[in-house]
């Protein structure tokens, strides 16, 4: 196996030990997520027993299915690193300094979140936040987050919140786009790697861009997002870590500020479930417009009813517990039809753990 971490070079680690270490690392994150949820629920009951967030009990037969899916994604992640899709060291990447800095803040924030959720206050923003120029569907406290996507406070807590929600599998889920991305870029083998342009739509705090950079260090990367605060956070993450800094722009995915056919690949991770149907279609059409003929568009988002009916109770709870106003429609939406309508062809889908992937090609003219 190709090994890139400095420790590996000093002390050769047998393959099975490295794999076991990775599995244990992931298991630790998963237990941490569970412990956090259990502890905060108990604490909330003590402090504020009247606060109640409704959720349906998850049928016991769903739990082993979920565990199986989690094991499968960890195995797939390991296998992709093993066959060199990305360096093995990426598997152990974790924003530790953010964790120690912001975990206490996140705990403090939880009470506010639960109170807002209980009182059904879904559009509450700090008075100093400029609200002009955003589409109205965006001005929401998604996941009951303090300030929605519109403050540095929210941007600093977001990755940690997602890590806890998915038991440490947010990056393994994001990394599932990398193998199909690299595969699709083989169509541009004669293009120098530095001239390959990849856009991430709704790049948020930049984690997907960082992962793409880990896998394709020479490519020119671009990211857009509506949130200035999340772009600041992305800029910080991508500057702190080695590599070319992607070009980041504040923009709506429905109106991408790029000329036609500019990118060899376009990606979008965890955006579509937060858009109303019409905006979903417009983002797909814009992604089609800016992608080169022969290029690829890859979506990673939540599972849907059609691919994971056995996880219906979890999807229903997600929509109830985390303020996700467009999720109910999203889980029954036909994204293949939308991609097809925009002009994409060769559309394939994959499902890994709690995520669905759509890989679509813009046909050559
Ligand atoms: C759930 S987060 C996902 C962020 C990131 N892709 C990730 O993997 O964590 C959704 C992101 O979409 C952005 N967003 C929502 N609607 C958007 C739109 N119409 N155009 C651009 N960004 C949008 C939000 O600001 C937020 O950063």
TrEMBL record:
Molecular function per GO: methyltransferase activity
Domain Methyltransferase: 198-295
GO biological process, one term: methylation
Pfam family, one: Methyltransf_25
SUPFAM superfamilies: S-adenosyl-L-methionine-dependent methyltransferases
Cited InterPro entries: Methyltransf_25, SAM-dependent_MTases_sf
UniProt keyword list: Methyltransferase, Transferase
Superkingdom: Bacteria
Record protein name field: Methyltransferase domain-containing protein
Species of origin: Funiculus sociatus GB2-A5
């Amino acid at each position: 196996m190709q090994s890139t971490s400095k420790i590996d070079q000093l002390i050769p680690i047998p393959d099975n030990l490295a794999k076991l270490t990775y599995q244990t690392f992931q298991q630790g994150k998963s237990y941490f997520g569970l412990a956090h949820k259990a502890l905060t629920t108990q604490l909330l009951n003590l402090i504020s027993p009247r606060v109640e967030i409704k959720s349906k009990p998850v049928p016991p037969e769903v739990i082993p299915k979920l565990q199986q899916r989690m094991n499968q994604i960890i195995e797939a992640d390991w296998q992709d690193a093993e066959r060199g899709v990305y360096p093995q060291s990426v598997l152990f990447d974790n924003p530790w300094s953010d964790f120690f800095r912001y975990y206490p803040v996140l705990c403090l924030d939880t009470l506010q979140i639960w109170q807002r959720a209980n009182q059904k206050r879904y559009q509450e923003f700090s008075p100093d936040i400029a609200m002009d120029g955003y589409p109205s569907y965006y001005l929401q406290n998604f996941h009951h987050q303090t300030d929605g996507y519109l403050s540095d406070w929210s941007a600093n807590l977001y990755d940690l919140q997602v890590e806890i929600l998915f038991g440490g599998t947010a990056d393994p889920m994001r990394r599932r786009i990398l193998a199909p991305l690299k595969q699709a870029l083989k169509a541009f083998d004669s293009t120098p790697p530095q001239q390959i342009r990849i856009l991430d739509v709704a790049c948020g705090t930049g984690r997907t861009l960082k992962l793409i950079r880990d896998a394709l260090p020479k490519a020119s990367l671009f990211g857009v997002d509506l949130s200035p605060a999340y772009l600041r956070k992305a800029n910080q993450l991508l500057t702190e870590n080695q590599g070319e800094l992607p070009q980041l722009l504040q923009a709506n995915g429905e109106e991408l500020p790029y000329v036609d056919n500019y990118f060899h690949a376009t990606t979008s991770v965890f955006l579509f479930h937060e858009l109303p149907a019409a905006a979903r279609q417009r983002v797909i059409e814009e992604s089609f417009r800016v992608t080169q003929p022969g290029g690829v568009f890859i979506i990673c988002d939540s599972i849907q009813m059609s691919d994971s009916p056995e996880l219906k109770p979890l999807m229903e709870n997600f929509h109830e517990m985390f303020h996700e106003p467009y999720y109910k429609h999203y889980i029954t939406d036909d994204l293949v039809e939308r991609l097809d309508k925009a002009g994409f062809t060769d559309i394939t889908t994959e499902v890994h753990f709690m995520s669905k992937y759509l890989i679509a090609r813009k046909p050559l003219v």
